[in-house]
Specification:
This protein is about 35% helix and about 20% strand. The chain has 5 helices and 5 strands; from the N terminus they run ββααβαβαβα. The protein has helices at about 20, 25-30, 50-60, 80-90, 110-125, and strands at about 1-5, 10, 35-40, 65-70, 100. The relative contact order is 0.17. Belongs to the small GTPase superfamily. Arf family. InterPro entries: P-loop_NTPase, Small_GTPase_ARF, Small_GTPase_ARF/SAR.
């Protein structure tokens, strides 16, 4: 965990596909958490509804702000932001602040925009 000049700190927890095995422990990770970065494989249409279940389960824990980053947008069969917004059910989160951002981890495209949105949300809540 690191703290920046603005007093914000961050902790990264990468659970990937193993979240089912540790789901009972997630509330420990989410205690005192204000935001969540949820990365979705845009090219994996087979598991998008499983990703939706995990995202909704985590968001039910608390008043998190959620930045959903769509990785692998460069692939020809990648789902676009509108399609994933629909499949993840993000419009049902009308009581929460959330954002969705197309990204490419290998080039960095879209990453700063997603992180800037999240940083602004956290700064504005104070």
């Amino acid at each position: 965990m690191q703290q920046d000049k603005a007093g914000q700190s961050a902790q990264q927890v990468d659970r990937g596909a193993e979240t089912d095995n540790i789901q009972p422990l997630w509330h420990h990770y989410l205690q005192n958490t204000q935001s969540l970065i949820f990365v979705v494989d845009s090219n994996d249409q087979e598991h998008v509804y499983e990703a939706r279940e995990k995202l909704m389960w985590m968001l039910a824990e608390d008043e998190l702000r959620a930045a959903v980053l769509l990785n692998k947008q460069y692939l020809p069969n990648a789902m676009n932001t509108a399609e994933i917004t629909d499949k993840l059910g993000l419009h049902s989160l009308c009581y929460r602040n959330w954002s969705i951002q197309a990204t490419c981890a290998t080039s960095g495209d879209g990453l700063y925009e997603g992180l800037d949105w999240l940083s602004n949300q956290l700064r504005n809540q104070k």
